[in-house]
Design brief:
about 400 residues; alpha/beta; D-Maltodextrin-Binding Protein, domain 2; 2 domains; 6-stranded mixed sheet; 4-stranded mixed sheet; about 15% strand; disordered N terminus; disordered C terminus
């Protein structure tokens, strides 16, 4: 395949002089598409990097492996950076992001039972909860306490007069298996990134009541997270990785490239789902389970300055973290940490190694790059029910 002429080769000054091999962890979902595209398009390799992508079962695994130096960089919820840096319910380790991977991209899915009982929004869900009070506690899952999914779910519940801490139960379940909780009757709904909503709505077992772009448009979803130590000791690799991701984000954003992107993501070593599930949100219209909708900015990979880790984005995440009860006694969680985590300066520095921003779609390159590992065996073979039993018991 040819290389698009407008995507010029990287400045040789961005090439790492050593430590060119990196291990980067991701959780299988669409908001990690930029990482996968950078690998499949050969952009990491063109910037002098040999990257191994490893598929992880969930955010707890991502967190622990980064904390203990088992991964060089990770695809992670932006709020996890504040929790790690400030040591909220975990060991504190300075970390930062020089690149935002995506905005929006999540949704709240509810069970068909709730639809049949007349639920159409948070206000009508409140009526069902009131009717069943004393007989039933509804469980609405999220993927991590420090995640935009938890914040979106809480914000949506409050919009209907539901107290997320008293009126419902919110267990935390790994993203790739949370949909099974609804299918098996452990959950009445959940908030998660795509395609783990579409996998249920297209079976008729559930329906999307709201997307994150409708709840809080333009919110940072995932970032490239590294330890501060890595950024300081291996600056060439870090900047080269960011430069490759800048180029990949443009590819992911172009509608003309979505079919090719879907083919990449659907592969077993990445998200491993049928292409039509990915097309639901990447091409649309978005089938909610109760009709298809054209939803603006359902997921954003590059437009609207999405990739820039500026202080404005950091402040939005900071406010969400501060609102959590678990974070309110943390003295390290102060406004001055925003600029230490969201490093626009690193993004700008990496940008000098990237060609013009406005360019036509890029075709995949015939570069021999390492394939990602299959990740932990428990991704497919775990006793899924145990996830929900433990979460509901906590």
């Amino acid at each position: 395949m040819r290389i698009a002429k407008s995507l010029r080769l990287s400045n040789t000054n961005s090439r790492p002089t050593r430590h060119a091999s990196l291990t980067v962890g991701f959780v299988p979902m669409i908001d990690g598409a930029v990482l996968i595209a950078a690998q499949e398009l050969g952009l990491f390799a063109r910037h002098g990097l040999r990257v191994k992508l490893t598929k992880e079962v969930g955010w707890a695994t991502i967190r622990e492996k980064l904390l203990h130096d088992e991964l060089d960089a990770v695809h992670a919820p932006a709020s996890l950076a504040f929790a790690m840096r400030c040591g909220i319910n975990m060991m504190a380790r300075p970390c930062l992001t020089g690149f935002v991977l995506s905005l929006n991209g999540s949704a709240i899915t509810l069970s068909k039972e709730l639809w049949d009982r007349g639920v159409r929004d948070a206000a009508t869900l409140r009526e069902v909860i009131k009717e069943d009070r004393g007989r039933r506690i509804y469980s609405l899952g999220a993927v991590l306490e420090f995640s935009t999914q938890n914040y979106h779910l809480r914000q949506w519940l409050r919009s209907g007069g539901i107290d997320p801490d008293r009126d419902v139960r919110i267990p935390f379940v790994p993203s790739p298996v949370i949909h099974r909780g609804l299918l098996e009757g452990h959950l009445d709904g959940y908030c998660v990134a795509e395609p783990w909503n579409s996998i249920v709505t297209q079976t008729g077992a559930g329906w999307v009541v709201a997307t994150s772009s409708q709840i809080d448009a333009g919110q940072v979803e995932k970032v490239l997270l590294v330890l501060e130590k890595f950024a300081e000791e291996r600056p060439h690799e870090h900047l080269a990785m960011i430069a490759a991701l800048m180029e990949a984000s443009i590819f992911c954003e172009h509608p003309e490239n979505r079919q090719e992107l879907i083919r990449m993501l659907a592969r077993p070593e990445y998200i491993d789902v049928p292409p039509e599930l990915l097309a639901n949100s990447l091409i649309g219209p978005f089938e909610t389970g109760q009709g298809a909708q054209e939803i603006d900015d359902l997921i954003v990979f590059h437009r609207h300055g999405a990739n820039i880790p500026d202080r404005a984005k950091g402040r939005r995440i900071y406010k969400e973290v501060c609102a959590l009860k678990v974070a309110q006694d943390c003295r390290a969680l102060r406004p001055d940490v925003i600029g230490r985590i969201f490093r626009e300066d690193l993004y700008r520095e990496a940008g000098q190694f990237v060609g013009p921003r406005e360019r036509p779609p890029v075709e995949p390159l015939p570069v021999d790059v390492p394939r990602p590992s299959d990740g932990p065996a428990e991704t497919d073979g775990a006793d899924v029910s145990s996830h929900f039993q433990m979460a509901l018991a906590s």
